């Protein structure tokens, strides 16, 4: 842990492998009060915490990955005489993306914010995948929100930056050694991809499927598969979550890429960053959309099939 005089402030919450608390300390240069989030694990989860610190150490200076302080996991005896393992990380004043969504009506975020957040998440995934890792547990609880202010058009406006956290379940791309019949998937089931559920396949396509679930959740305010009783058997059949019928065409096309049956068809983070959904250049989508007429507005299946055809046509343009 950072060699600082940390003072306990308050408990923040519990994660997969330990609890997180807020600590404050004085800046060395100006004495300003600064904050750090300290993750604490018991002996049973110490291995995961060591693994997380090692992975985070490889992402020093990466703007979309939460930063870890110090040069290793520190061991301390708690007041009950048991050994605890701790790492200190930068503190996200906005909490998790899940906490952030709770502040909005029906937990639905505005469309421009969703597009901006999706861009940030893809930037983070591009960095993670470039280093040869798959996050394996991408969900709103593992995305941190860092509020800031920007001066624009003569006024200060709120701004937010997203960063990935919780790498305790992360694995090397293509790793299969971890797989066991009694633990057939790595992360949180409702955010996992069909191939990772059915036979433990770990690749960047898993993170892109999970990204699609997160983007969908930002639009609906609901967990994926909210429309039925979630069943792993359905996911293994490659069914995708239900889209809102009022979702824009370019958003549907983006999500359909994330939810492609074959992992390779989900492309990669850098390719998805060039989609119209994130560029704001949807002229060609509008041109195609003019040729799509839905006779029955309530026939969502037909509308989705038309969008699939449009996706195929757009892919042929690239």
TrEMBL record:
Q: State the source organism's domain of life.
A: Eukaryota
Span-the-membrane segments of this chain are none
Extract the InterPro entries matched here. Answer: Kinase-like_dom_sf (IPR011009), Plant_MAPKKK (IPR052751), Prot_kinase_dom (IPR000719), Protein_kinase_ATP_BS (IPR017441), Ser/Thr_kinase_AS (IPR008271)
Annotated binding of ATP, by residue: 39
Looking at the record, the residues that make up the Protein kinase domain are 6-278
Keywords noted in UniProt: ATP-binding, Kinase, Nucleotide-binding, Serine/threonine-protein kinase, Transferase
Q: Kindly give the Pfam families that the UniProt entry links to this protein.
A: Pkinase
**What is one Gene Ontology biological process annotated in the Swiss-Prot or TrEMBL record?**
signal transduction
Instruction: Please name the GO terms that the record assigns under molecular function.
Output: ATP binding; protein serine/threonine kinase activity
Q: Which PANTHER family match?
A: CCR4-NOT TRANSCRIPTIONAL COMPLEX SUBUNIT CAF120-RELATED, PROTEIN KINASE FAMILY PROTEIN-RELATED
Family to which the UniProt record says this protein belongs: Belongs to the protein kinase superfamily.
The protein's name in its UniProt record:
Kinase family protein
Q: Organism, per UniProt?
A: Arabidopsis lyrata subsp. lyrata (Lyre-leaved rock-cress)
Q: What is the lineage of its organism?
A: Eukaryota, Viridiplantae, Streptophyta, Embryophyta, Tracheophyta
């Amino acid at each position: 842990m950072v060699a600082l005089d940390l003072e306990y402030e308050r408990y923040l919450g519990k994660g997969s492998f330990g609890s997180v608390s807020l600590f404050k300390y004085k800046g060395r240069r100006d004495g300003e009060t600064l904050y750090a989030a300290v993750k604490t694990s018991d002996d049973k989860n110490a291995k995961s915490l060591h693994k997380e610190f090692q992975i985070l150490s490889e992402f020093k200076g990466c703007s979309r990955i939460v930063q870890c302080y110090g040069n290793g996991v520190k061991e301390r005896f708690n007041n009950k005489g048991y050994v605890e393992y701790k790492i200190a990380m930068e503190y996200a004043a906005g909490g998790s993306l899940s906490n952030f969504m709770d502040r909005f009506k029906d937990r639905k975020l505005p469309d421009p914010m969703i597009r901006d957040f999706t861009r940030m998440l893809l930037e983070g995934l591009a960095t993670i995948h470039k280093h040869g890792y798959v996050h394996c547990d991408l969900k709103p609880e593992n995305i941190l929100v860092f509020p800031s202010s920007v001066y624009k058009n003569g006024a200060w406006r709120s701004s937010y930056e997203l960063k990935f956290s919780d790498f305790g379940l992360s694995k090397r791309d293509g790793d299969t050694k971890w797989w066991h019949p009694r633990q057939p998937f790595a992360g949180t089931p409702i955010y996992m991809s069909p191939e990772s559920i059915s036979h433990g396949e770990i690749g960047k396509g898993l993170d892109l499927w999970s990204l699609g679930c997160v983007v969908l959740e930002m639009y609906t305010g609901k967990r994926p598969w909210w429309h039925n009783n979630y069943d792993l058997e359905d996911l293994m059949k490659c069914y995708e979550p239900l889209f809102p019928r009022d979702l824009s065409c370019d958003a549907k096309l983006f999500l359909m890429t994330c939810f492609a049956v074959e992992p390779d068809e989900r492309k990669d983070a850098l390719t998805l960053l060039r989609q119209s959904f994130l560029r704001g250049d949807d002229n060609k989508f509008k041109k195609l959309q003019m040729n799509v007429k839905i006779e029955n507005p309530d026939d969502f299946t037909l509308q989705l099939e038309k969008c699939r055809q449009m996706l195929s046509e757009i892919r042929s343009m690239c």
